[in-house]
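Quick one: structure for this chain?
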Amino acid sequence: MLSLPEDGTLVGRVWCPDAGGPCVVVRRGENALDITSRATPTVQALLEETDPAGVARHAPGRDLGPLSRIAANSTEIPDPARPYLLAPADLQPIKACGVTFVSSMLERVIEEQAKGDPARADQIRARCTEILGDSLRAVVPGSDTAQSLKEALIAEDVWSQYLEVGIGPDAEVFSKAQAMSAVGFGASVGLHPISTWNNPEPEIVLAVDSSGRIKGATLGNDVNLRDVEGRSALLLGKAKDNNASCAVGPMLRLFDDSYGIDDVRAAELRLRVTGTDGFVLDGESSMTEISRDPVDLVAQTRGAHHQYPDGFFLMLGTLFAPTQDRDTPGEGFTHKLGDRVDISNPGLGTLTNTVRLSTECPPWVFGMGALMKNLAARDLI
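Got it. Here's what it folds into:
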């Protein structure tokens, strides 16, 4: 069932069978209004407006019916004859920040030290906690204090590349998903079949325009293959960017008088994983614990060093790092196929997906070339 905040300007994308492609929609009451036009043929074009929330609220359009009915068809295999929700990003690549919270930072160090072996994780976790404790919580990344801590950790022989991006001057920013490749509410989210130790990552996702202005926020699942990345940081691309490995949605909340960057800074995310085996995992991620401000993360992603002419969506990282055992004592949590993942926040709604292998999820076939052809055939560009 689709869960959305009662207030706010919510926009998204819906696959419309009669159009043979995606439509830009805004929530009006309980319904989805298709506002696709020559002025706003894509979400990317809408975000380039000075006031996208104002444009979306007042745009004319056609009524597609209740959002709840569209959401009911937003499943792993939707009925292609009826509308269903897509990820709210289109032309924007999806970037992601890692190691932005102390807890997840320690887990990345543990993954590296364990070399992808979950059986070694508990022992290494205890050693890291003994040495590091909570001392990192008050450290400002890139500060003189951070540099002093780095020198102390090197002397203790526990310095790590993950600590470098956690408390050093430069944030970790990587490419999570190509433009048009993210999946939306209700869809399958994919694990690369080589992984046997993995978990969801509940995150806030910012929508940023071509000038670096933050225009809205949504929810995301930056699926993490702990064993693959733990074997080598050079496998990050293989661990992160796979078919259906990035879920975003359910809709994008545009910044307006009711919601802005301070709401993002104060956001509390809830996570629930429900297995077909009866296993339930509850977790949370509090943005108040983030070690780098979201605005700084945007500035580290885009600037004179790198331009994004179509804008980008930016995942901000997560505090959540699962240590609860699922099957074997000491081996922690890992996904099983069929797990349902719910990521929720009162201001942004709930993103729901089902875990499958990337090789078993519907293949990504509708890319930017297909979108351009579709929009041209509809006389929208």
